[in-house]
Amino acid sequence: MLLKKGDIVEITIEKIVYGGEGLGYYDNFALFVPMSVPGDKVKIEIISLKKTYGRGLIVEIVAPGEERIKDLSKKSFEDFQGCDFAMLNYTSQLKYKRDMVEDVIRKIGKNNDIEVPMTLGSEDELHYRNKIIEPFGYKDGKIITGFFNKKSHDIFEVDENMLNSKLGNKVIEELKVLLNRENIKVYDEKAHKGILRHIMVRTNSFNEAMVVLIINSKKIDNKLEKLLLELKDKVKEVVSIYVSYNREKTNVALGNENILLWGKKTIKETIGEINFNISPKSFFQINVKQTKELYNLGINLFDEIENKVIVDAYGGTGTIGMILAKKAKKVYSIEIISSATKDGIKTAKENKIENISFVNGDVNKELKALVKEEQIDAIIFDPPRKGIDEESLLNIAKTNIKELVYISCNPSTFARDLEILEKNGYKLKCVQPVDMFPQTSHIEVVGKFERI
Ligand SMILES: C[S@@+](CC[C@H](N)C(=O)[O-])C[C@H]1O[C@@H](n2cnc3c(N)ncnc32)[C@H](O)[C@@H]1O
């Protein structure tokens, strides 16, 4: 058997592997197939080949696996609007997410005993995103926004994005009408010319929207500014309008300079009776209803909170820290992005929370200093995808801190850090996968470590 790129072969999918792709074999040769589910009999087109495995895209579903959703007309990543788990029914999404967490805990974390319970499902399976960033492009001469097509890097548009909040979708629709009317030029990556780069919309539970137009310029001209102001008259829910200047050759969407053109500087969100301020650059969890569940889970893992001094490491706008501060003796929230720290300080003041201190800086440096200076009882970590620096973990291991709660959006770095902690005096006591991102293969996991 010698497969070539472009060949079409029929295989049966055996399982879903970490990362969310299906795996099947053709003459004992492993083939990974995005958007496939176990039991699927599919015809696939080979798109890449390595020595020991290849990858193929579905061209025909010959017979669907039991866990596939009913609509068989959808086959590709693009058909599913870039949602790489949307071909699975929701119960099965939760099951495979649990299995993936267990897999990395065993293989990377080298922990064979901890029981991994079923993933905690999200109340909203669709339209849960409160933040949207979409690139601009052209289709048939018309300005569109959407996603990058996996194969061509062209942008494709969807009618109603299934993950975005309904208000977010509405704002983008209206904005496109205005931009097309004025015929504003879309940014061309290759030539580094044109104006419109990305649109970002943040929405909240009060049905308000913050609009951030990201442009390839150092200045906004009158025509574009007037157009953005017209948007707020068209969509009454818009309460804040920013322009973000990004002249860099980069795929980071937001620029460094974010200028408020109209309305409120921040939009608010309420969690645990605390009103949080969110500005364009601040990290804020995107599925708010499920965030409340996630935070409750994490916070309830502490033996007790009263009288404890707790560090909220990778604190963002201080969400977890402030909820903890309602009960704890004292909380320190460490965060690297200064606007997020500023949002946190503002929120604490407005909510009259006085027993929280914000530290703007790198966890790797600030945590080391803090544990030397203060008697810290417990830490809650919520790092970005790359996890926690090994040096930080080793520094913690030198202290007598008894409890660590670790919230992670990347189970494989969680598992890597788990091994380091377990080799250095901590034991994983429990773990819970949480679905923050239905229809995608992303998984959040919360674990509690205790010193042994
Ligand atoms: C997953 S978010 C969690 C934020 C917050 N706990 C929440 O739930 O909203 C990770 C945060 O860590 C921050 N961050 C990333 N690297 C950091 C570092 N080395 N030191 C401090 N903060 C960092 C990011 O800016 C981001 O706000």
Principal-axis shape equals globular
The total of beta strands comes to 22
Strand order of the largest sheet: 18-17-16-19-20-22-21
- Uncertain runs with pLDDT below 50, 5 residues or more? none
CATH architecture of the largest domain: 3-Layer(aba) Sandwich
End-to-end distance = 54 Å
- What name does CATH use for the topology of the largest domain? Rossmann fold
Count of domain modules: 3
- Residues in helix, %: 25-40%
Number of helices: 9
Strand content: 25-35%
- State the CATH class of the largest domain: Alpha Beta
CATH superfamily of the largest domain: Vaccinia Virus protein VP39
Instruction: Report the average pLDDT across residues.
Output: 95
**Assembly status:** single chain
Family: Belongs to the class I-like SAM-binding methyltransferase superfamily. RNA M5U methyltransferase family.
Active site: 409, 409 (nucleophile)
Pfam families: TRAM (PF01938), tRNA_U5-meth_tr (PF05958)
GO molecular function: rRNA (uridine-C5-)-methyltransferase activity
